[in-house]
Amino acid sequence: MHFFLHLVTVIAILTHCTAFDLGQSTRCVPIPPQMSMCQDVGYSEMRLPNFLGHSSLETEVVPGSEAWRPLLQTGCHPQAQAFLCSLIAPVCLDTFIQPCRSLCVAVRDSCSPVLACQGRAWPEALDCNRFPALEDMCLTPLPKHRTYSSKDVPQPVCQACPPVEEFPSLKTLSDALCLNDFVIKAKLSRRRFTSAEPEFEVEGQVEFIRRGPLLPYHTHSLLQQWLLINIRCAHSVVRPGRAQLYLITGVLQGDGTISLTNLFPWHKKDIHIAVATRKWKHHKC
């Protein structure tokens, strides 16, 4: 549950920070290597204090930035990194460059549902009304056609945790194969949350038993994103240690999102799963 401890830390920091005074004295410092989320933003020096009122790299800035990394890994909005880094590690120029209100709204509307899924609310310190409405000297959102994926590509969303059934009956598996839009075979693993890599990972290729609406080139990243969005569910489903192979079923919703409906751990001694998937091509629902 390291993610939640990190997120509690940043929420506490943001809740108690004071509004930044543009008239106060600032200094420029290199962005430290441990701030991995802001290493590839296009500049190497940042202002202190930052726009959240943080002046200490060690006790405020770095812990605050690292706590947002799991949210950014979900890909909740393509400019979420730029938005957060413009506040946590603002570029060191002759003038102050804040995010525009429109950018804040765009990131908030896409990412706050993911935070809610993970049990947290959008922080009051990131209230979009505090940012400039006139888009003259602030960071603007990209055009819509560049910021969002095609509607034809299924997307994962927050959902209730699907049941995990060990050693299901042959009938249960046959029904699952018939009643769902897609059935895939994937290996899921969980690592210690100590690096810039995601805690949960889809290892190797995803195999299709029933492809349905899924796209071959997109399914691996779709399942990876599902794990990161539904991280509380992932904690209860994927245990640390060796990667576990699963038979996963799901449906495509009317709005183009996908929901996982069942996860069946694929044990070597579970003959029902092997039989059900082998006979699927000849099975009549």
Automatic annotation (TrEMBL):
Per the UniProt entry, the signal peptide is: 1-19
Domain of life where this protein originates: Eukaryota
Domain named NTR is located at 158-285
Q: Which UniProt keywords apply?
A: Developmental protein, Differentiation, Disulfide bond, Secreted, Signal, Wnt signaling pathway
SUPFAM superfamilies listed in its UniProt record: Frizzled cysteine-rich domain
Keyword Disulfide bond among record annotations: yes
Q: Which InterPro entries is this protein grouped with?
A: Frizzled/SFRP (IPR015526), Frizzled_dom (IPR020067), Frizzled_dom_sf (IPR036790), Netrin_domain (IPR001134)
Q: Where in the cell is it found?
A: Secreted
Q: List the disulfide bonds.
A: 104-128
Cellular component (GO) terms are:
extracellular space
Domain FZ, by residue range, is 23-141
What does the record give under GO molecular function? Wnt-protein binding
| A Gene Ontology BP annotation from the UniProt entry | non-canonical Wnt signaling pathway
Keyword Secreted part of the UniProt annotation: yes
Protein family membership = Belongs to the secreted frizzled-related protein (sFRP) family.
Q: What is the protein's name according to its record?
A: Sizzled
Tell me the organism.
Chanos chanos
